[in-house]
Deoxyribodipyrimidine photolyase (Ahrensia marina), 508 residues
Amino acid sequence: MTTLRFILGDQLSTDLSALNDADKKNDIVLMCEVWGEATYVRHHKKKIAFIFSAMRHFAEDLKSKGYSVVYKRLDEHDDADFTTALKRVIQHHSIEKLIATEASEYRVLEMQKSWSDKFDIDVELRGDDRFLSTKQDFEKWADGRKELRMEYFYREMRKKTGLLMNGEEPEGGKWNYDKENREPPKDGLRFPDRPDWSVDSITRDVLKLVEKRFDSHFGDLKPFEYPVTRRQATHYLNWFIENALEDFGTHQDAMVQDEALMYHSHLSALINVGLLGALECCEAAEKAYQEGNAPLNAVEGFIRQIIGWREFIRGIYWMKMPDYESSNEFNAKRDLPEWFWSGKTHMNCLNQAISETKQNAYAHHIQRLMVIGNFSLLAGLDPKQVQEWFLLVYHDAYEWVEMPNVVGMALYADGGVFASKPYASSGSYINKMSDYCGQCSYSVTKKNGPKACPYNYLYWNFLVENRELLSKNQRMGMMYSSLDRMSDDKKDAIRDDSKRFLKALDEA
Ligand code: FAD
Ligand code: DLZ
Ligand code: SF4
């Protein structure tokens, strides 16, 4: 009997459940590049190149380990989707059983579930145990809770993994050192140079393919400097632990002009495709702490992002899909401005965040949340369009992680499934946490008028427009009191400035 083991582009781990118990002599491993995955949203060129190159390298790795691999390159067959590709391979190799690991996204899992009917062979779908918490564990944790807060989930995950634990107690006596991780950028911060490697012939072929077939997609393809193999990924992780982790915590929320990466790990895409394990990254950070090479606030912060936020976000996604994607609490309908694709706006913070996204298929968390997400919220951009944008522009974006971050965290479009209030803010937050405002055409200290920072009046306008939904929220009480103390002239100026700005946005 020939068994087919099917591996998706974000399942590049040799310990994948679909590969457990493989009979290397008789089983076939299938991986395929398909047109539909690259175009159901028009992914950033660099993201496609990263995934195809990582997939091709992973296939070679499996071959060198003795697996029999069938790899379908896009330029050889042009299959529209996974089902079409599978059908051909099943017929050609007289496959009797198909084993796959459950897809990370609802859309693809639904496809997988249809295969046993479509192919008339035995189909076994296995859980993805690269995540540290199962979908069922999360639902059980969430069941009956009035509020779903990452912090409490995270504490359970610390106990479960034993990371930074002294018996039942958290290392250092506190669970969370976030308050120490909000330092504004100081002058003269020095950021370490990233490792790089020469592009090999596999990546060169992929770059040619992407240049030829996806030329009209968003983003810059070159320079292409991503790790694409397990060896490069572990090298990158070790580099981060040795060179950037120490300062990661303190400056986690800071933004600096023309510094795309700062002390961030840049590991999300490598973890999401499976070249690195989530636990492996956390254990490496914990070891640095234990050996005195990184402070607790940095290591705890890094571990919290991974075993806390990353796992929590995935739990929310599976608990709330499929309705979650249509969430639109504020009934926001505005189209994305054209400059979301170019970065060409006089708002320097947005220009920086979007231009860097275009160059690198990457922006760090605060740029995504407090610059682009915050603007999208205040300007009332349509959540569906914002989601699609975030899903296609970032190299680490898969729906399971992108959607709750956009719908729940950045836009509060889910009405507060896990956030206690919207992450809405005026320009003063961006000014405090970055050096962007000093280089902007707008003035962050001006509250009204054509020269005023648009975040300033849009923030109050957002509160006015959504009063009915937000004023009941206790955590918004102070802001509504401030709004109510404003003079009528001030309120008129906020309304007029917002109207003028949003009209120009619509016309742009
Ligand atoms: P670091 O700052 O070095 O953090 C370390 C790791 O923690 C990351 O590699 C990542 O694995 C994890 N992490 C941190 N925050 C989160 C979070 N909120 N959710 C899940 N994991 C987290 N992350 C994605 O992986 N894919 C996405 O599509 C994505 N979309 C986002 C959209 C918005 C609007 C926001 C606000 C956040 C989004 N994030 C997403 C989370 C976060 O911004 C990225 O994981 C992070 O910027 C990746 O860069 P890094 O590896 O340098 O992270
Ligand atoms: C993102 C992506 C792209 C662009 N192309 C492919 C592909 O051709 N083949 C593949 O197996 N995976 C690809 N991926 C990643 C998938 O979209 C991802 O594995 C699923 O969406 C997970 O549900
Ligand atoms: Fe952004 Fe406003 Fe600062 Fe300009 S002034 S960089 S628009 S926050």
Summary: Strands lie at 3-6, 28-32, 69-72, 97-101, 122-126, 165-166, 169-170.
